[in-house]
Amino acid sequence: MSPRPIAVLLTALLAVLGLATPAAALAAPVQTLTWTGNNSTTEYASAPSGALPGETTIVFENSEATGNTTGMSHTLTFDTSTPGYNHDVSLNILANPFDPQNGRHEAVVTLTPGKYRYFCTIPGHTSMVGEFVVSDGGGDTTAPTVTALVAGNRDSSGNYIESATVSLSATDAGSGVASVEYQLDGGSWTTYAAPVVVSAVGMHMLHYRATDVAGNTSPEGMEHFTVVEGQGDTTPPTVTASLSGDRDSAGNYLDVATVTLTATDADSTVASVEYQLDGGAWTAYSAPVAVTGAGAHMVHFRATDAAGNTSPEGMSSFTVVKRDTTAPTVSAAVTGTQDADGNYVGKAVVTVTASDAGSGVAAVEYKVDGGAWAAYSAPVQVTSAGAHTVGYRARDVTGNASPEGSVAFTVVAGGDTTAPVISMGVTGDQDGNWDFVGRATVTLTAVDPESGVASIEYTVDGGAWTRYATPVVITALGEHTVRARATDVAGNVSAEAPGTFTVVAAPPPPDACPVSDTRETVVIGEIDSQVVNIDIGNGCTLNDVIDANAEYASHDRFVKHVKAVTQELVGSGVLSSGDRNRIVTAAIESDIGGAPTAGARANDVRKLL
């Protein structure tokens, strides 16, 4: 009986007894569906294939616990546009092992009967796609199909050494698989979530079964096997890293970070511990490592025991900053057209430059002829005739201030005093929100009718000023701000021209096969090729492109069709030559297009390659 009827009966019973209905219990979602991610960019580590309609808790976990050891981000996104699927649930969860939830996120949605499609939106992860069926169970009377696979190292008698791993797989073409269970050595039935590792020495019997959303339960399957003792230590050591040192408010280590590695091995002994700093050579660890270089760092580490087992690589990242006690260095240069006496004709342009090797420059200021200090952001133009003095100074992030400097010069009348005029254009493909899809191209132009344009500069998102030569292409996703300025031959600098725009990702390509043949392997007629039925990259599977259900003039025409499409897939790197041979062999052995004669079949086999 499903949770909904139980809740209804409970409500009725409590009403008869005159008791209040526990609203919180009745309001609970009817089910929990779980997706997991790991280091793969082609598929989710696990995903449901069927569900009941109603309020549902969606769990998406992309963490170290689910196999993500590289810090890779994934999303779980429901398709709301492809025909043939339900579009009534808007879900887009981004998970990363290092986010505030440690990669585990939950959301509550309401599912309706039909089919849902889900995918990952991270660029390069477009093969991570799947679908599941929501059914109320009506009309489904066929139980799921469930199979078991036992794996592990075996001795000459077929016994498993140290341990055996049992993997269960279930499919249901009707309402979808709701649960898979197993029973080990007559114990209690347990929900299957991951391969079962059996390490106890002796004979074992594992029963298994599956139940679909409609409540149909498969006949029990059974696997029996024997585990024997192994020889020697096969378990790698455990190794951890800890960091120590003085830290600032941002968590950065001041001047030095000390990395301490600790390794243990319960079976034999730890033979060696190694570390790798910032991608350098692996180095034997003998004492805590002091890292003093300023900047971001990454330490990888591993350990090997006396039996030769090596641990998986661990990693730890951190940043070292230097305590800054040195003031910035600041200087000024005066440019412009000069007469024979060294006076500047029409105007003088004062450019102030500051640098700080410690915490970085926080502010630069200037003053003209003893006036008030002002923030320096662009070269200062002095146009009034007469003698002038420009003072300047700088301050770093830590608060260290430079001594004041100054430059003196004289300006005489005449010359070009008009700054250039600069303009900016942003082009590219735009969506309905006027955002640029995939990329935006920034083009700068400047004119100066007097002395002429000497240079054009630009800065992107507050970065360094860069000399402009050709249009600037920006592909990074997100909002961007570009500022530009121009300087003429006489040294006049234009006002800055600002531009703000957003670059968004291109939409995913449409699914070429909305109604797809998603059987696990490539099956041609009654022949199972044992080749995994993969998505070829456009939403179509291998079974879709082979199209065994189409009409063919003869068996020979069908075999030629299969050879042609599989050869094309080999050429594009989608299919291996070995898998192609197995598929073509299955086509030859099938009766698609009419049963071949024994001679024709033999001839096809000879021409397989």
From TrEMBL:
<dbReference type="InterPro" id="IPR014756">
    <property type="entry name" value="Ig_E-set"/>
</dbReference>
<dbReference type="InterPro" id="IPR013783">
    <property type="entry name" value="Ig-like_fold"/>
</dbReference>
<dbReference type="InterPro" id="IPR005084">
    <property type="entry name" value="CBM6"/>
</dbReference>
<dbReference type="GO" id="GO:0005975">
    <property type="term" value="P:carbohydrate metabolic process"/>
</dbReference>
<feature type="signal peptide">
    <location>
        <begin position="1"/>
        <end position="27"/>
    </location>
</feature>
<keyword id="KW-0732">Signal</keyword>
<protein>
    <submittedName>
        <fullName>Ig-like domain (Group 3)</fullName>
    </submittedName>
</protein>
<keyword id="KW-0479">Metal-binding</keyword>
<feature type="domain" description="CBM6">
    <location>
        <begin position="335"/>
        <end position="475"/>
    </location>
</feature>
<dbReference type="GO" id="GO:0046872">
    <property type="term" value="F:metal ion binding"/>
</dbReference>
<dbReference type="InterPro" id="IPR058094">
    <property type="entry name" value="Ig-like_OmpL47-like"/>
</dbReference>
<keyword id="KW-0186">Copper</keyword>
<dbReference type="InterPro" id="IPR008972">
    <property type="entry name" value="Cupredoxin"/>
</dbReference>
<dbReference type="GO" id="GO:0030246">
    <property type="term" value="F:carbohydrate binding"/>
</dbReference>
<dbReference type="InterPro" id="IPR028871">
    <property type="entry name" value="BlueCu_1_BS"/>
</dbReference>
